[in-house]
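This part of the workshop introduces the protein records we will be handling. Getting from the letters to the tokens is the skill we practise here. An example says more than a description, so a record of this kind follows:
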Amino acid sequence: MLTPEEEAHVLSKAYVPEHIVSLMAIISKGEPFLIEDHLGFVKDNWLIFVGYPLDQRFSMERCEKVVKQVLERFRPESLRFIGPEIPLFLIDSCIERQTDQYYRFDIEQTRVKNSLRRVAEKASQQLDMERANAFSKEHETLISEFLKREKLRPRIKELYRAMPYYVAHSSSACVLNARDKKGRLNAFYIVELGAKKFTTYLLGYHSKSHYIPHASDLLFLNMIELTCEQGKNEINLGLGVNEGIRRFKEKWGGVPFLNYEECEYCPEGIKMISMVRTLEGKL
């Protein structure tokens, strides 16, 4: 368990979404902990280890040392590693592995194209913007539509499905809604404001059943305005995910800035103990 002072320290040093304690704790339902400037979350027989050190001085030697300490201390049956590079001793036993890049939007360094401002302004003539801290049935309907239509990685699907619970329990989540003139939810973004130095874009979607062009562009522009109001200069746009999402982020000036590796690892010794216990329970 982190003290309020420790959580404030983490948020002041955060540079990836996984450093936002409340975001990770609410979605994973794990208990946060700090070990040698690394953040982790643990519950029952699993553990999430964030391999991005808060001091931003990543080295493979240091990372391997800390991961081994975590495995020895908690003895998890499953370890989910997230970091810029996977320790070599984990790779051969990875059940799942994903590679991507974080994207960043720097407000001071990026000039928004006039063409994007124009299409956002055009969309604003048909849509009204609102900021909220609630997730409604309308949002869930749009998410269901999206998950049926798109082929997404399991982790991304889990993130979308976790949004109702996350928004309901977060004090730093903000929902940007775009509604048509009939009051219907046309598109939305969910952003996280907890980190001291940046805003985090978590996810969003626009309706296909009553589609209005450039609703997502209008939301992006509003996200920039919200970030400026928060006194921040940076938006972490999350991962590339797929070609369409990457193109949209790059269209607005988002650039890849940090490598992302994810690995699901089951320690062999712990796995064998778990199997024995399972067999014992059936005898």
User: Anything to note?
Assistant: The radius of gyration is 20 Å. Residues 4-93+266-282 form one domain. The CA atoms of residues 142 and 207 lie 6 Å apart. The chain has ten helices and eleven strands.
